[in-house]
């Protein structure tokens, strides 16, 4: 199983990090060791002083596919969730400044929170989903998938040009504005259409 992550998919997040707007989706991979085990807290790693949360809508692939046309992409997933792409922002900046890969900043142990899955049939349309992150009962990120630069089916088409999508693969579809630092004892809750799909504590 692989975690395929999309960067810079919301204009407001691109602006807040002062990044350049891409002409194609930015794609990177998290390995399966990054998945935070269920009912476990997130432990801030000792190699970073600036771990940021990034809330994202997740899609679970349910069918083997490659070179998937956008019009058929909806057949390759039937479950959705929300999760967090934890990022060691200070380490990521150092790596980016040197033109080096991001894996140490993005794919460390516990860096991927995967919420409870819901069936796609429970939502009206995947391109019009409200989602939000609460930190200590305060909303810190909120958005709608209609703000994505590349929608879910477009992402599946694009990603499947390069990687064979396998059953169980998860696509992290990008984060909106509002990313920020976590500290010990923070409590994070993720919602999709007002359904709480994860709750974790930071240690």
TrEMBL record:
Keywords: Hydrolase, Metal-binding
GO molecular function, one term: hydrolase activity
Positions of the Fumarylacetoacetase-like C-terminal domain: 2-201
InterPro entries assigned: Fumarylacetoacetase-like_C, Fumarylacetoacetase_C_sf
The name this protein goes by in its record: Fumarylacetoacetate hydrolase family protein
Species of the source: Olleya sediminilitoris
């Amino acid at each position: 199983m692989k975690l395929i992550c999309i960067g810079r998919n919301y204009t407001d997040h691109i602006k807040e990090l002062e990044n350049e707007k891409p002409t194609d989706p930015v794609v990177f991979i998290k390995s399966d060791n990054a998945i935070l085990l269920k009912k476990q807290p997130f432990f801030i790693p000792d190699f970073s002083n600036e771990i940021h949360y990034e809330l994202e809508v997740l899609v679970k692939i349910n069918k083997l596919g490659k070179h998937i046309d956008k019009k058929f992409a909806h057949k390759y997933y039937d479950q959705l969730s929300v999760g967090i792409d934890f990022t060691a922002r200070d380490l990521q900046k150092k790596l980016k400044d040197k033109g080096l890969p991001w894996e140490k900043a993005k794919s460390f142990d516990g860096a991927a929170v995967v919420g409870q899955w819901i069936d796609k049939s429970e939502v009206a349309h995947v391109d019009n989903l409200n989602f939000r992150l609460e930190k200590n009962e305060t909303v810190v990120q909120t958005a709608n998938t209609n703000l994505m630069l590349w929608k879910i089916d477009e992402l599946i088409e694009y990603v499947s040009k390069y990687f064979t999508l396998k059953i169980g693969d998860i696509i992290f579809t990008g984060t909106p504005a509002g990313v920020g630092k976590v500290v010990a004892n923070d409590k994070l809750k993720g919602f999709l259409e007002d359904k709480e799909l994860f709750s974790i504590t930071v240690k």
